[in-house]
Each structure stands twice: as C-alpha cells, then as structure tokens.
C-alpha cells in the first residue's frame, strides 16, 4: 500500500506542480488579490450606506462569505484550466507518459497542490477580513459547513476546469470558456451588483442551479447558526457535481 502511495505522490511531482501554481499569475491576481480587494471595497461601500452600526458585522460577514467563492473559481476555473491547457498544447503530459507517469497520477498531484494553495488563500482572505472588517465569529457548525461547501465547490471547479482543458487543448479557447463561466457564476450568483430578485426569470432558473447563489445570498444564516432549509443548496451541488463528474470522467478516460 505504501509503495502505491509513493508512485502517486512524490516530492518531485508535488514540487513541479507547486511551481506551476506559484508561477501562474492568474492564481495570484484573480484568486488571491482580487477577492480580497473586492471584499474590502464592497464592504466599505455597503457599510457606509447603513444607518445603524450594529448592522455592519452582518453586512461585512455576508460579503466575505460570498466573495470567498471567487477563490476556487479563479484559482481552478481560470488558473488551473489555462495552465493545463498550455501543458497539453506543448505535449507535456505525453512526455511525462514516456517516463511512466500516467495522466491520472499528474491529476492527483495537481489536486493535492491546489488544495494546499486554496487553503493558504482562504486563510489569507479571512485573516484580512477579521483584521480590517467587522466579520462575525462563526458558530462551530457554521464554520464546518462553510469549509465543507468550499471543499466540494472547489472539487467541482477542478473537475470542470480539467474537462474544459482536455477538450480544448488550447490556451485561447480554454481561457475564453473559463472566463465566460467565471463571470456567469459571478453575475448569476449576485456578486456583480445584481441581486437574485432583480434577475430575469430565465436567469433566476439558471441561478438556482449554482451553489454560489446560495452561498452569496443565504450563508450568513448558516454561519451564525440560524435555521436554514438546505435542500435547494444541496440540489444545486448535486446538479453541478453531476455535470463536472461527467466532464472529468470523459477527460480522464480519453487521456489515459
């Protein structure tokens, strides 16, 4: 069992994938810097318009919980997809295969490195929130659920990104599709200044299928331990998870 693990996760492969992440400007600009900047700016603007100071923590917390979804969207949907598409266009996975490194092994090492980077990005994101904004401390159950939701959502984004890169195998096409999905999730999730209630009916129908809608709109209740009806959120995760699972299955089957 230990030999099998050594073949899947090796220091050399993990170092290679970590360098890929750290040298990718998209992950730093859109996955770390932009969420922090947007969360701080939106919080400051929203708080300045409130008549009562006791509402400041609620607004700040809601903004940060919603903006947290930008991290996996940017790091994975954009950064990972574009980086892997470039590798595919240069034939790097094929060269790795000549040395006995399967594409599935590359994917597992990438997934672990992405998890490490996302963890660091989230810690930095919420650290700035607690230092410079009035974010409320969560209930233990709320924190656990939020972490679980972000992990699952990140896995979905990774699967979608991997599938898109494998099907396009081109920087331009992959960047275009991932960018469209990135902004579509932001708009439908209510992170571009348009609330769910103000969307057209067809857009509301699409928004109901996305976990970002519920995280941005409702997660404050879960964070603070209030009662919440989870079924619509769970259904959105199941739908998007099924789509990403099909993409990933097709990608791994065709590439191995």
Percent of sequence in beta strands: under 5%
Please outline the major beta sheet: none
Number of helices: 12
Mean pLDDT across all amino acids: 86
Helix content: over 70%
In angstroms, what separates the terminal alpha carbons?
22 Å
Which term fits the overall shape?
globular
Low-confidence runs (pLDDT<50, min 5 residues)?
A: 1-6
Please write the string of helix (H) and strand (E) elements: HHHHHHHHHHHH
Q: C-alpha Rg, in Å?
A: 19 Å
Number of strands: 0
Describe this structure in words.
By secondary structure, the chain is mainly α. It is 80% helix and 0% strand. It has helices at 2-8, 11-22, 25-48, 56-67, 70-90, 92-98, 103-132, 140-168, 171-188, 201-207, 211-223, 231-255. It starts with a helix and ends with a helix.
Any key phrases for this structure?
0% strand, 256 residues, mainly alpha
List the helices and strands and how they pair.
Layout lengths: L1 H7 L2 H12 L2 H24 L7 H12 L2 H21 L1 H7 L4 H30 L7 H29 L2 H18 L12 H7 L3 H13 L7 H25 L1
What's this model, at a glance?
With 256 residues, the protein is an all-alpha fold. Helix content is 80%, strand content 0%.
